[in-house]
Amino acid sequence: MTAPVFVVDSLEGVGPGSVVDVQGPEGRHAVSVRRLQPGENVVLTDGRGRGAAGVVVSVSGKDHLVVEPFEFPVEPEPSPRITVVQALPKGDRGELAVETMTETGVDAIVPWQAARCITQWKGERGAKALAKWRATAREAGKQSRRLRFPEVADLAATKQVAALLGAADFAAVLHSDFDHVSEPLATAELPAQGEIVLVVGPEGGVSRDELALFEEAGAKACVLGPTVLRTSTAGTAAAALLLGRTGRWS
Hints:
By secondary structure, the protein is α/β, with parallel strands linked by helices. The protein has helices spanning about 25-35, 95-105, 125-145, 160-165, 210-215, 230-245; strands at about 5, 20, 40-45, 50-60, 65-70, 80-85, 110, 150, 170-175, 185, 195-200, 220-225. Strand 3 and strand 4 (about 50-60) form a beta hairpin. The longest helix has 21 residues, at about 125-145. The two termini are about 20 Å apart.
């Protein structure tokens, strides 16, 4: 079992001979929930690619531990970088999608208000939902022992998604309409580096107007296989396929 991961605001200046105080919610989780004791190993990260693996030196109160790092791993910028544009699912399936995509290794997630989305992010409700997605990515990043957590962007409109696709080195819309001219994602030509952007539509599918706009921006309509996946699982399955094909899982 690898050492548990805890998030700190910054690891700037942390090196051999340093000690790091972990307090607040992360300290409380380490001390009161995980019940860590001096001598146990932990990994600290800023969630932006830097880490500090070390040993717990002391524990005090309910939310304070001191860590002495002895290794300083760095998770480099991934290449190619994989972004998933995720249409808003119903209920808590959005958090499920974010959780599993984070565990799989997606680098960025863009929530999308598609035409056929039943869920609407508006006002305070939308702000709370976005905060939940970001908190889910953070917790899943820790759980999966990542040092570089995926960025969860602000809610995007369809035109913003089209602009993102137009700037990508490879862009695909996962499409479940088998009558539409689509190619298998498993055989699509992929770049060795740069930006890959995938669009996952809502349960009702990507509308014709949206698909036309995305294809005009340079995206390909692609199918994953002979079955239709739910919107909350399609991004994870597609990302796993691409991570294997690009060599990031080799």
